[in-house]
Design a protein that fits this description.
The chain is α/β, with parallel strands linked by helices. The protein folds into 2 domains: about 5-55 and about 300-400, Aspartate Aminotransferase, domain 1 (Alpha-Beta Complex), CATH 3.90.1150; about 70-300, Aspartate Aminotransferase, domain 2, CATH 3.40.640.10. Helices cover about 40% and strands about 20% of the residues. The mean pLDDT is about 95.
Amino acid sequence: MSSNINRDTFNQVMVPNYSPMASIPVRGLGSRVWDQQGREYIDFAGGIAVNALGHSHPELVQALKEQAEKLWHLSNVWTNEPAIQLAQSLCTKTFAGRVYFANSGAEANEAAFKLARKYAYDHFSADKHEIISCVNSFHGRTLFTVSVGGQDKYREGFEPVPAGISHVPFNDLDALEAAISDKTCAVVIEPIQGEGGIMPASKAYLMKARELCDKHNALLIFDEIQTGVGRTGQLYAYQAYGVTPDILTTAKALGGGFPVGAMLTTEPIATALNIGSHGSTYGGNPLACAVANKVLSLIDSEEVLNGVEKRHQIFIEQLRQLNKTAPVFSEFRGMGLLLGCELQPAFKGKARDLLQLALEHGLMLLIAGPDVIRMTPSLIIPEEDIHQGMQRFTQAAEQFLQQQ
């Protein structure tokens, strides 16, 4: 890459909707990343729960190379073998009977919400179009998905937004029961709210949602964009809860870093998306599906999924030890390797400050709102990288305290 590319170049040529860090990563291997200056970082961010098998996993690289020498793209005028194989695998491993492919989580959710309305329109009436979502939820950045999402800040300036969408407090059974009616076509829930602060749903809440949807002939949609593909220690989080949705959306880790998304549903519900009712130029791309096939085959194994829980325990133990040395957090929450560390009230709003200090100490982290540090590392991150990364995090937390 040209040596005159730097962070200032970003400001000169890119739309200012992002504010990335000063360093520019140029190479990754496993759970280590190197920037333009050759500085090494331990990656606890995982591309926001995307790089589930780390960087440059040799089997993913090989799968991509092999497919690249065969077929890159066809369009949906034809189908292709990798897409069919991936759909077969997803149906075999989940409740689903049918799959729709997209390029991202937002597009998978867009398809899910359109399907819910179309199914209600076909089987009931046009009046049955209302969608219930949760406060602080996040479902994407298209106009429809940002409207279903429960965070006002992402909708401001883009109004008017689509009608027929309401939001209830997360994990509040009574509020959901009061809001749902025979006009509801779908209830949309993240089993663990990601952008909302790594907030797990209670099993009772998801079970009640299932019961209420059945009662009112509404579809239950689980947004598993962030929780899916091994992140919680199960292939999908619904399997840990024992509550089965009617529609499930998945992306992020599904491609291990290659853009791909999918909407999973049952055969009877899928019939509502009849020919021509929805589509995607790149959805089901052979390159993406070939990589995703390899990702699924590697992650859906006892070794990897059991390893997620083992690593979870190591992280929690290390985080508690950090908090004894530098007491900056009030709570640790999450499942598997989707972890949220909430700052003490005294440090409210300063999660990004701690994130920046961690980066200076050679550790890549995320935030989930202004008060929560988020960790979504590789599902196979070596234990040595966890220990060394936590040492760096401790140093950053100590510096953070000194600056207060």
